[in-house]
Design goal:
The protein is an alpha/beta fold. The protein is built from 15 helices and 26 strands.
Length: 520
């Protein structure tokens, strides 16, 4: 398979492994009832302020393989965005780019190299976070669409490519000197493991319209007229014996097939013109999803109007409409799915999740990551206003309700010398150790009876025999730290005095805690 190469590629393809783990430092929780509070809501909705590469790494212990839908809107690399390459890759070719504003094509000949070096490790971590039945959607334009497709083929697998969706971002042509005016962008879509079909989305369907019950398994329906101007002309007989000649939507053969299949109803006690049954179940399942989205209310202009309504005329560069993100989420996510946006911008994805939950009573969760300083004043503030309600007069929008927690990126779990940073707290260290062993999140609560037990997983008991201010010694005398029977035991401690024969006989695996013991 052809492979894309660029300056610095060999240094960034494994860079996601070198990114330090950081803890998430809780700043406040927000709910519609209580506003901001120091207490965590534990709602599952998160807004994180910090570099998205480090934030994605911080999410792994809790969310690896659990995100059903990812939407990102990265820099398009147009040359006008003035984004900055900040990833600290330890190589002279790339280090010279640090904190350098990326310019236009003519003045910055490595512009595309920088963009690819920035995107590659982030996509690697997003791939890890995506669930096996999940999908990722990436907004992009002509500047990097071709390059994005090639690196996604490499990371997600060419066989997992779903579509390159075209969506209309402008309602009218731009007044440009170019002969062809661009009015669309792309949404590149990949699955984690070859999803052959996505859910069928019909945003304009109002399920309450399908209220007519039926006596077969097809369920509720709405009735539609059978007549059609310019259609086939023939005569039909109603159940009461009345003969009606008209222009019909169907050929005569099709009409009688529908009649025999109990797909027609006759109003006025069987005396009126027939109407055919359009079943909700079949409407939701029919057809395929087109890869051209030309919705009239899903342009960037609509997004700007939406944002100005929320913020009383405050503007934001290139926001996306919440209706577009709702449609994307509905393609793959269930009512209890987790949705991630690591280039959160103005917070449109959080807005879309809250709208969908209000619409259908769902319990979807959002995780938003934004590195810019407006994460608090715009990203989080928008979500607050959507939860509470916004706008005035006839533009007033009722609040969705809900809550979220706001975080900053905190300290590293490991110091520069690769020893544990013991200042982050035992619970964060325990979570990390358990994740590295099992790739699962540590949900078990610590108790006095099982003080050193992390949890049991696949017939193995995991123990973290740790005290912050003293060395721990694993010996015959203190094996009482093992409190639950298992087929095998993995025990972390500072020192092990058990002999190899004893450990082999009792299925004990010792692992040394990585910390600086010189200080004791």
């Amino acid at each position: 398979m052809p492979e894309l190469t660029w300056i610095g590629k060999e240094k960034v393809i494994t860079h996601h492994q070198d990114v330090p783990y950081r803890v998430l430092e809780h700043k406040y929780g927000f709910s519609v009832e209580g506003g901001e509070s120091e207490k965590e809501t534990k709602s599952g909705n998160k807004i994180i302020h910090g570099d998205n590469l480090e934030a994605l790494k911080a999410l792994l212990p809790e969310y690896e393989g659990k995100i059903k839908c990812i939407y990102i809107d990265p820099p398009y690399n147009t040359g006008n965005e003035k984004w900055v390459y900040n990833d600290n890759v330890n190589h002279p070719k790339i280090k010279k780019w640090l904190n350098e504003v990326v310019g236009t094509e003519g003045e910055d000949l490595t512009r595309h190299d920088k963009w690819l070096c920035m995107m590659y490790p982030r996509l690697k971590l997003l791939h890890k976070l995506l669930s096996e039945d999940g999908a990722i959607f990436i907004s992009i334009d002509d500047n990097e669409q071709a390059n994005l497709k090639l690196i996604c083929d490499e990371i997600f697998g060419k066989q997992n490519f779903i579509s390159n969706i075209i969506w209309r971002r402008r309602k009218s042509q731009a007044n440009l000197s170019k002969n062809i005016s661009p009015i669309h962008d792309f949404i590149v879509c990949y699955s984690k493991s070859n999803i052959t079909s996505l859910k069928k989305v019909y945003p304009n369907i109002n399920e309450s319209d399908y209220k007519n019950p039926d006596d077969d398994v097809r369920g509720s329906y709405v009735s539609m007229p059978c007549t059609n101007k310019g259609g086939a002309i023939y005569s039909i007989t109603t159940p009461t014996g009345k003969i009606i000649t008209d222009e019909w939507r169907f050929k005569e053969e099709t009409y009688y097939n529908l009649l025999n299949d109990n797909r027609l109803v006759f109003p006025n006690k069987g005396n009126g013109k027939p109407r055919y049954k359009l079943f909700l179940k079949e409407k939701l399942e029919e057809g395929v999803i087109a890869n051209t989205w030309w919705d009239s209310d899903s342009s960037n202009q609509d997004a700007s109007i939406e944002l100005k309504t929320i913020f009383n005329n405050k503007s934001f560069d290139t926001p996306k409409p919440s209706t577009l993100i709702c449609k994307i989420i509905s393609l793959v996510a269930d009512k209890d799915s987790i949705i991630l946006d690591s280039f959160a911008g103005s917070g449109t994805t959080g807005h879309a999740v809250l709208n969908l939950n209000k619409l259908d009573g769902g319990n979807r969760k959002f995780i938003l990551v934004e590195m810019e300083d407006y994460a608090q004043d715009i990203t989080a503030e928008r979500v607050k206003r959507v939860i509470k309600g916004y706008g005035e007069g006839n533009k007033k929008v009722e609040g969705t309700g809900g809550e979220f927690d706001y975080y900053e990126l905190g300290e590293r779990l490991f110091l520069e010398d690769n020893n544990l940073n013991e200042e982050v707290g035992q619970e964060k260290i325990r979570e990390y150790i358990y994740y590295t062993e099992t790739k699962e999140f540590l949900n078990r609560k610590r108790t006095k009876e099982n003080y050193y037990l992390l949890d049991n997983y696949l017939n193995t008991g995991y123990y973290f025999y740790y005290e912050k201010d003293k060395l721990t010694v694993l010996s015959i005398d203190n094996l009482n730290i093992v409190t639950q029977k298992a087929e095998q035991y993995v025990i972390y401690a500072d020192i092990c005095l058990l002999d190899k024969e004893f450990m082999l006989k009792n299925n004990i695996i010792f692992k040394k805690i990585p910390r600086d013991i010189k200080r004791f």
